[in-house]
Amino acid sequence: MIFQHFNLMHTRTVAQNVAFSLKAAGWERSKIAPRVAEILTLVGLADKADRFPVQLSGGQKQRVGIARAIANHPDVLLCDEPTSALDLETSATILALLRQINAQLGITIVLITHEMNVIKSICDRVAVMSGGKVVESGEVFDVFAHPQHAFTQQLVSHTLNLTLPERLREHLPGQLLKILFIGDSAEQPVLSEVAIKFGVAVNILHGKIEYIGERALAF
């Protein structure tokens, strides 16, 4: 498990923190040091093996936590808000490392987070919880493109910033339409084709394209 606040033993070095999980799992003593060295290389901390947690940055501490969690060859890695205590740049590097671990080691990653951008950047599937219950689940792209539950719709709307300013809604005449483009259609000149075909003027008040995985979601 990877914790939000690292939970490292401050009186032990980086290598000793990682080795602790192997000792607790009953590994043979002769196999622990080579495994620790292998894992620290994987997480980019080979040169920090003899450092103490107080000498590390927040991102480096989380890398130690990741190394400790995967040292014993788990099938599933549970991550509890692994980036919420980190800045944006450091969070991106930690998420990239988790993607690498998933691809390279084949470990299933279960990630608990309230950060929707984290879900968009790393997850394949998502389960949305409200009131202690799972209210919606599915492929990440599908949940963002077609949220079914009211709570999910609220989350997605807030994350994608789909709401127009009140001033526009009050003072603009006529009907305001929201158009959603999914997948390949997001990269096609749909609006210009509509203007030409029907002889109408189209005014865009707000728009953006989000890429979730490798699929486009435009609105």
TrEMBL record:
What does the entry list under GO cellular component? plasma membrane
Q: Write down the Pfam families for this protein, in alphabetical order.
A: ABC_tran, NIL
Q: Which UniProt keywords apply?
A: Amino-acid transport, ATP-binding, Cell membrane, Hydrolase, Membrane, Nucleotide-binding, Translocase, Transport
Name the enzyme's class: hydrolase
Where does this protein reside within or beyond the cell? Cell inner membrane
Please indicate if the UniProt record lists Cell inner membrane as a keyword.
Answer: no
| The EC number(s) this enzyme carries | 3.6.3.-
- How does this chain sit within the bilayer? Peripheral membrane protein
Q: Domain ABC transporter: where?
A: 1-156
Mind listing the GO molecular function terms for this protein? ATP binding; ATP hydrolysis activity
In its UniProt record, which GO terms are filed under biological process?
A: amino acid transport
**Is ATP-binding tagged as a keyword?**
yes
PANTHER family tied to this protein: AMINO ACID IMPORT ATP-BINDING PROTEIN, METHIONINE IMPORT ATP-BINDING PROTEIN METN
* The name this protein goes by in its record: Methionine import ATP-binding protein MetN 2
Provenance organism: Salmonella enterica subsp. arizonae
Question: What would be the name of the gene that encodes this protein?
Answer: metN_1
